[in-house]
Each structure stands twice: as structure tokens, then as C-alpha cells.
Design a protein that fits this description.
single chain, 8 helices, three-stranded antiparallel beta sheet, mainly alpha
Length: 180
């Protein structure tokens, strides 16, 4: 489900959006968070760029990452804080989150790491013991990707490492994942 954003006069330079429309974009970001959470910085940047019909530039991403922190109660998840932060409407929403959204129009770097982890965890729970390679294939398929690209592999490996760190799973010397 996507947040419905009010019509804007798009097609203006990205620098003008940044310079003159901070309050409007802050409201749009808050709406996106309230409806679409959890979301990554890459997803927020894409949504705003498409909505305003501007280029999704590094300057826009940097501005959005700063702007999100000014939204009351918005929470930045510690899981992926430095690379491609995951944002929530508030901290309470993040506690115990065990969902994932299947096939969507999101690129792998627009899918929150917690959703990749949840999809993989479900696979391990259903099968008791799963080769890590099969978890990667499962994640690729469940999120609607045709093949496993290097970015998908990196995201899946990061999810496996985080799941091990959080003691969700163990991985034996043969690469078999089991519930902890």
C-alpha cells in the first residue's frame, strides 16, 4: 500500500524543491512513513523524486535523510543505520515486526533489511533446516526478482549475518541454517 500524496507542481529543478519546499516534503515523508513503514532511505528518495518529477540525486538523498530526523516520533532503525537507513513512523512500530511485503516494485536496496530477514526466517521455520543458498533463492523469489544479482546476494548475506548476530538462526559448517 502506497501513501497518497497531494498533487504538486513537478518538473522543477531538484535544488528548488530542496530550497523552497521543505515543509511540504516533510509532510509527505511523514505520510509515507505512516502508511508504508518500514522504509529505506532509497525508497523515500525514489518516492519523493518521482512525486516531484526530479532526479533522484545524492543531494536529494542527503536532504531527505536530514529531513526525516525532524519528523516527530520518526525512528531510525539501528540495523542498517549508516548504509541505507530504515525508517519507521515510531519506535513502537518496529518492536516485534515480523512481516515482509512480497513482490512489489521495489528494488532490493529499497526493501528494508528487516523484511529480508523476516522472509528468510519464515523459510527456516517452515523447513527446520535450510541451506543458506536456498534461503537466498527464496528471498529472490519471494520479493519478485527473476534472478539473484550481486545486490540481492549482498542483501541476503547481510540478512543472514544479522539473523546470526540476533540469535535467530545458527549456520553450521555445511552452510545449513537452523532456528536458534
Amino acid at each position: 500500500k502506497l501513501a497518497k500524496l497531494p498533487k504538486v507542481k513537478g518538473g522543477i529543478p531538484v535544488n528548488e524543491v530542496i530550497a523552497k519546499h521543505e515543509a511540504t516534503v516533510r509532510k509527505e515523508l511523514a505520510e509515507i512513513l505512516s502508511v508504508e513503514q518500514p522504509v529505506t532511505l532509497n525508497w523515500l528518495s525514489r518516492r519523493i523524486a518521482e512525486h516531484w518529477e526530479v532526479s533522484n540525486t545524492a543531494a536529494l538523498r542527503t536532504w531527505i535523510s536530514r529531513l526525516v530526523t525532524t519528523i516527530p516520533n520518526a525512528y531510525t532503525d539501528a540495523i542498517n543505520k549508516n548504509e541505507n537507513p530504515i525508517y519507521w513512523n515510531d519506535f513502537e512500530e518496529s518492536i516485534g515486526y515480523d512481516k515482509y511485503r512480497k513482490e512489489s516494485e521495489r528494488a532490493i536496496d529499497e526493501i528494508p533489511l528487516v523484511e529480508v530477514m523476516n522472509a528468510m526466517k519464515e523459510s527456516v521455520e517452515q523447513q527446520v533446516a535450510v541451506p543458506v543458498d536456498d534461503l537466498v533463492k527464496h528471498a529472490t523469489k519471494i520479493f519478485g526478482f527473476i534472478r539473484t544479482t550481486p545486490k540481492i546476494l549482498a542483501s541476503a548475506n547481510k540478512a543472514v549475518e544479522m539473523m546470526k548476530k540476533l540469535s535467530w538462526i545458527t549456520v553450521d559448517e555445511n552452510g545449513i541454517a537452523k532456528m536458534e
